[in-house]
Specification:
The chain is an all-alpha fold. The chain has one domain. Helices cover 74% and strands 0% of the residues. Helix 3 packs antiparallel against helix 6. The longest helix is centred in the middle third of the chain and has 34 residues. It is globular. The chain starts with 8 loop residues before the first helix and ends with a helix.
Length: 277
């Protein structure tokens, strides 16, 4: 890549700022924040209703419920947010106009991603932060730090699926096909992957997949998110079945955090390669 094609932060920041302010103006951040806050507060109060109890029952049951909710909701929101980031510009006829400005394709791609990621992050932090205030007031410091760890991992999960959505937006020729790919990605990583892995374990008796099992789990960012939250100060791993057999020695944030970052960078790198062609 020549120096003229090397991405510059100033151009990326301008594009990201426009993308972010567009989301603020159409109240997208506010709507998603309200959704996250409402679900989190409801789970914190009614999460143990099936056991005949209401009210805050501790951080561990709350995080267990929030992990399951987040895995279903946050990837879907991220995919919906980013699936038309570039293919939408192409269909509206504004992509060539954007590229006529003194920016290159990588700067446009990264600017779009950074702006959307900033909007998604604000919505996530605002939504979970409202419930976090209640938890801080009612829970000890250890619980507070565990909740913060959950929120950080949720932000990373959103960034991963937003990266996948932007990559799909580059590869697809229309918004219709991009939306179909986004839905397929959600079904695969959130619903299908673990079922396939569980079926393979049952069919092989676990012998063939045993040594490869941790690697196979890391091929799904939703599973990495689960692992980051169940091997914490609390004893949550018994609540998650298949994930609970992941080696505790590998379930360290300093190891899994970079794996999540790789899940963010790899789709963006692939999208940049394709977009430059």
């Amino acid at each position: 890549m020549s120096l003229s094609n090397f991405p510059h932060w100033a151009q990326i920041r301008v594009i990201a700022g426009k993308e972010f302010h567009d989301r603020i103006r159409n109240r997208w951040v506010l709507a998603v924040s309200i959704v996250f806050a409402a679900f989190t507060l409801a789970l914190s109060y009614f999460g143990a209703a099936a056991q005949g109890a209401v009210g805050f029952q501790g951080i561990e049951p709350l995080i267990a419920s929030l992990v399951s909710l987040t895995i279903y909701l946050l990837p879907l929101i991220a995919l919906i947010l980013g699936f038309d980031a570039l293919v939408g510009e192409r269909e509206r006829g504004t992509l060539n106009l954007l590229l006529s400005y003194p920016i290159n394709r990588v700067e446009l791609l990264l600017g779009k991603y950074v702006g959307l990621a900033a909007a998604l992050t604000c919505a996530t932090l605002a939504g979970f932060g409202v419930a976090g205030v209640a938890i801080v007031l009612r829970a000890p410091n250890a619980d507070w730090y565990q909740y913060v760890g959950f929120v950080i991992s949720a932000v990373l999960l959103g960034w991963v699926f937003l990266s996948l959505a932007v990559s799909a937006s580059v590869f697809c020729a229309s918004r219709t096909s991009a939306s179909g790919v986004a839905i397929a990605l959600w079904f695969f990583f959130v619903l299908v992957y673990d079922l396939l892995l569980l079926g393979a374990l049952v069919l092989t008796g676990g012998a063939a997949l045993g040594p490869m099992f941790p690697l196979l789990l890391m091929l799904n960012p939703a599973d990495i998110f689960r692992i980051l939250n169940i091997f914490g100060p609390g004893d949550l791993h018994t609540m998650f079945g298949l994930i609970s057999v992941f080696p505790a020695t590998l379930a360290e944030p300093f190891f899994l955090g970079p794996v999540m970052l790789l899940w963010i960078v790899a789709p963006l790198g692939l999208a940049a390669w394709r977009f430059n062609r």
